[in-house]
Amino acid sequence: MRQQFAEVEWLNLVRLPVVVFQAVALADGKADSGEQTYFLEYVQRTTHVDPLLKQLCYVLAEQGKDVLQLSERETDFRTYLEEMRRVLENRLSPQERRSFLAGLLCLGHHVAGASGGFWGLGNRVSAVESARLEEISAIFDLAKLLDP
């Protein structure tokens, strides 16, 4: 799938799972060790169903813990996500985008659930994390992709 993207698009796209992780994990003010560990384990997996997500995670896994660092450009996650939405719209079919974004948002949900609650009980996803996930979904216009 990499060949579908211009070199600069690919370099920017590789960071997309990291930005989603950071946007969700930092929604409540701090990316804790449980969230970080979950993300690092997630990118190490080889069982990703979506081929684009699988390729991105492979590249990210090679970076080890350094992958957790964000560039200054990526700290403005809303602008970055909007730019990546346009790239995805230009390069992927609606079905490919739906598959990729479903995997990406699944990552966000699991990161949000990786910590929180009281002794592991109760709702582990905070209200601000849930709102952040909805915001990310809206930026990518996922609801439109899911409509038949």
Give the helices and strands, then pairings:
Layout: H1 7-13, H2 16-25, H3 33-44, H4 51-61, H5 72-75, H6 77-91, H7 94-112, H8 127-139, H9 142-146
Spatial gap, N to C terminus: 25 Å
Beta content comes to under 5%
Number of helices: 9
Radius of gyration: 15 Å
Q: pLDDT average, as an integer?
A: 87
Secondary-structure element sequence? HHHHHHHHH
SS-derived structural category: mainly alpha
For the biggest sheet, the summary is:
none
Unreliable spans are: none
Helix coverage percent: 55-70%
Shape: globular
Q: How many distinct beta strands? A: 0
Q: Quick summary of this structure?
A:
The protein has nine helices and no strands. The protein is mostly helical. Helix 3 (about 35-45) packs across helix 4 (about 50-60), helix 3 (about 35-45) packs antiparallel against helix 7 and helix 7 (about 95-110) runs antiparallel to helix 8.
Describe the structure.
By secondary structure, the protein is an all-alpha fold. It is built from 9 helices and no strands. It has helices spanning 7-13, 16-25, 33-44, 51-61, 72-75, 77-91, 94-112, 127-139, 142-146. Helix 7 (94-112) runs antiparallel to helix 8 (127-139). The longest helix has 19 residues, at 94-112. It is globular and about 35 Å long. 29% of the residues are buried. The model has no long low-confidence stretch (mean pLDDT 87).
Characteristic key phrases:
148 residues, mainly alpha, 9 helices
